[in-house]
Amino acid sequence: MAYAFDAIRRRPRRSALTALGIGLAVGLVVMLLALSNGITASASQLATASGVDLIAASANTSLSSPQFPPVTGAHRLAVEIPRADSNVVTASPWLVSNLVFGNASLWARANSSSVPSDWGPTGCGTVGWLPSDNAGIQVPTLYNGTGFTWPGDPHYANGSYTGPLTHEIVLDQALAFVLHVGIGDEVWASPVTPISSAALPGWYSNATSFVVVGISGPFWLIPSALLAFTYLSELQTLVGGASASTDYASLVLIHLRDPTAVAADQSRIESAFPGLTVFSLSDLLGAIQHVVDLYRTFGTLIGVIGVVVAALFTTTVLQMSVDDRSRELALLRAVGHTRAAIGLTVVEESLLIAGLGLAVGLPVAYLGTEAMNSFLLRFVNGLPSSFSFVGFDASVIVTGILVVLAVGLVAAIAPAARAMQLPVAEELRAP
Prior knowledge:
431 residues, 52% helix, 13 helices, two-stranded antiparallel sheet
């Protein structure tokens, strides 16, 4: 080992560059593993804490579908699913759609034909739901205002859609900030985007006005910086689903009393409602894991390429080291050192360089994952504070150590073989 240390000490620049190459390769592998671990663990934690045990979608829907077909009879399902399965506490239909919002300031400017060039309506996601029927399901925290006034869905009126329109809306903090509105202020919403500022007066005439009754926090289930919530029937009225035959939602979130036998509830609900496909929490997590695995496979390929390049580079440097010390190695053989002992010195040198690479790679990987996590949390809005995109745990560190050992051992094979086969007499006679 002392001889290996001496070999590194005599060539510090070369050894340092080799260790840096190994460190960067190992750091890349560790970062990719930490990223996939973090997403998987956080998604599982959020899903478990959400209170959503089953998700009902339209029949023959796949979790990989970019958009879910509408679930018909949404209000009816909120009552009939718990009736069909006594283990169901809540069946909450959610309609998710995109609306365009304008505020009073833009309305005033539009009517005076003096709209600044950088002003315009704001598009965002909107959820139509039954605010009082989400027992056991995690919903956005209400920070300001009293929230929705009436229980149930008064405009739905048992399918006639003749009840009073509440015109109440809850905005998340980001949307309220963008629209410059607070509790009691009026906003206008429409599924149509005006084509120009000249079209704004007509857009406001056809848009629906709402009064802001609450300001909420972000919502991880629909990660978006801008999000609004209305009664289900009122959003249906805006987007064209306000009738008994077109009473639709995007999905139904189901909370169970006892989630230990989810498969039985899943089967029972699908049997009672042939028009539905019911997904369990494990199905949802499996879909998330499938996506993570795809990225992990791609990342693994990149990591393997980096490790192979680092191993080849280390092999080249060790070959140069053997050539530089060929006379010394021959002299060691001449004074009684075995071939195995000579090869072992090369392996020790390789492992020492790899160890230095590990000392560089782990801190780089940790700092890199922290920076990546911070960036992604700012980039992806609507996630709770407990969410982390990276998981820098013991398994990741052990994997990094194993990669370093593999690089060190593989890189030493050819140089060690060369060192053991050096012709002693020729090397000693060489000038």
